[in-house]
Amino acid sequence: MTESITSRDNERVKRVCKLRDCAAARQQEQLFFAEGLRLCTDLAAMLMPQEVYFTQKLLDAHPELEQLGGRHFLVSDGVAAKLSDTKAPQGVFCVFPRSVKTVQDIRAGGRYVCMEHVQDPANVGALLRSAAAFGFTGAVLCADCADPFSPKASRASMGALAKVDLIVEKDTAAALRAFSENGIPSFAAALRNSVPLETVDTAGLHGAAVIIGNEGNGLTDETTAVADRAVRIPMAPGVESLNAAVAGSVLLWHFRGV
Amino acid sequence: MTESITSRDNERVKRVCKLRDCAAARQQEQLFFAEGLRLCTDLAAMLMPQEVYFTQKLLDAHPELEQLGGRHFLVSDGVAAKLSDTKAPQGVFCVFPRSVKTVQDIRAGGRYVCMEHVQDPANVGALLRSAAAFGFTGAVLCADCADPFSPKASRASMGALAKVDLIVEKDTAAALRAFSENGIPSFAAALRNSVPLETVDTAGLHGAAVIIGNEGNGLTDETTAVADRAVRIPMAPGVESLNAAVAGSVLLWHFRGV
Predict the structure, then answer these.
(1) Which residues of A touch B158 (CB under 8 A)?
(2) What is d(CA B121, CA B153) in angstroms, rounded to the nearest whole number?
């Protein structure tokens, strides 16, 4: 049974826009917003949507949308334009339950990417995508990382936020303690006082935590000091840094098989 | 001698905006636009700026801007807002000469990243940045890649576009021929009919060309067929792809020392 919404002032539409725009609303309702055919169907293969909104035009082109779970709403083009976070909306939007774990869920032998102050949602999303691609167990988001459930981050993650354990822990030190207590060696990405990545032998490692810092400033000294080892990606003279998602992903690639 | 510009309708200001917004203007004038303190000073360490525009406020905070080469213009906040491609302009803008090479400049033993239909300027910029970081000789932009001199690409490259040879060649086949004629083995990034990256032994290689395709569709079949080998980054089941800049950079990392 598909309901119809034609008013941009509909209360349900306003609520979905709030989930799209506001991290606090996402946290309070334990829901998040996703947009686009590929992202919505990828996520719906792993998470049961609570609500699905689509235009008649998109439904005609993709009748399989009827098979998605949750409550369905047919929306006018005007409502679709209001719901959309993009300039050219495809015409499908979902509300999914968000699931976040805690450091108590970190388990021995796991591979984790741990981010501290990674503030660009595109970087958070790309790192989640790389973590999923390289078979990592989970991602731990520390300090003031961008919300992985924002539209920009979920789009960049391409559904990976449902493929790895998402753990939120404001206190980076608590995350590092959890790795240590589970016998997981931690590797801090740091340009100074660090060893070149290719010299780190991964044979014999059982699990690993790769710690990535802020785009501009890197990891805090406290975090680098507490990690088991500090590693760097060697760079040509005169080049000071890589894109944060690129640098983190090269590290994840190195530790993929441990 | 610093000239002053206070009118947003100044002809010079209009011309700079055109260089900012229009690839054809950049090509015709053989110039490009850059914005921001870090990017402008990084580029000015490698390229002589033709023109430098700054606000009094930024000059007061950074008197070293006076040391940059080229003609200098003091601009009002209104002019700075017009020149800026960002929401919060820092207040410095430069016009630099753009330098593009051809496939005739490809040389034996070099390491090249070759892009075909890479259309997101952020990906082009990030790949240039990785290429510079990993000591690559140059980047070859084939087919309809995003213009590396656009503001988005140059920002993402963090000045790397002046650190590697930039070669533009519409015809991917011509680029592959140039690699072949110079004895440079070419490696196409392809998910199918390819070998896992970690099985490619780089010992004994003298130079390499890494060929990266479109974000959504990958390399064309023609290009993959002509390359010497096709390689893939193995991914966990259920994950179909990585961010294009991430995937390309992991490949560049693998071939960094050849």
Answers:
(1) 241
(2) 4
For B104, half-sphere exposure in the C-beta direction (CA atoms, 13 angstrom radius) is: 3
Nearest chain A CA: its distance from B239 CA (Å):
6
B129 vs A242, A250, A253: nearest CB: A242
Mean pLDDT (chain A, rounded): 95
Place of tokens 């693998």: B254
Token pair belonging to B192: 């199918």
Out of B163, B233, B236, the one facing A132 most closely (by C-beta) is B236
Rounded distance, CA A100 to CA B58, Å? 44
Per-residue model confidence as pLDDT tens digits over A76-124: 999 999 999 888 899 999 999 999 999 999 999 999 999 999 999 999 9
Continuous segment of H or E residues that includes residue B230 = strand B229-232
- Chain A residue numbers with beta carbons less than 8 Å from the beta carbon of B129 are 239, 242-243, 246
Residue A239 pLDDT: 87
Order of all β-strands in the sheet with A208-212: A165-169, A138-142, A111-116, A208-212, A186-189, A229-232, A195-196
Look at the block and give the residue holding tokens 């009827």: A66
Q: Which residues of A touch B121 (CB under 8 A)?
A: none
ipTM of this predicted structure: 0.90
A69 touching B (Cβ < 8 Å): no
Measured at the CA of B123, the angle between CA B117 and CA B128, to 5 degrees, comes to: 100
Min CA distance, A107 vs chain B (Å)?
19
Q: Which residues is A75 bridged to in the sheet?
A: A5
pLDDT for B258: 86
Chain B within 8 Å of A251 (Cβ-Cβ)? no
Taking only the tens place, the pLDDT of each residue in A219-256 is 999 999 999 999 999 999 988 889 999 999 999 999 99
CB of A161 within 8 Å of a chain B CB? The answer is no
Q: B138-188 pLDDT, tens per residue?
A: 999 999 999 999 999 999 999 999 999 999 999 999 999 999 999 999 999
Q: Which residues contact B21 (CB under 8 A, 6 or more apart)?
A: none
Confidence at B75, pLDDT banded by 50, 70, 90: very high
Q: Do B246 and A130 touch (CB under 8 A)?
A: yes
Cα–Cα distance, B234 to B240 (Å, whole number): 10
What pTM was estimated for this model as a whole?
Answer: 0.93
Residues 6+ apart with CB under 8 A from B14: none
Among B132, B160, B250, the residue with its CB nearest the CB of A249 is B250
Residue A120 neighbours by CB distance under 10 Å: 18
Which two structure tokens, joined as six digits, stand for A211?
A: 């710690």
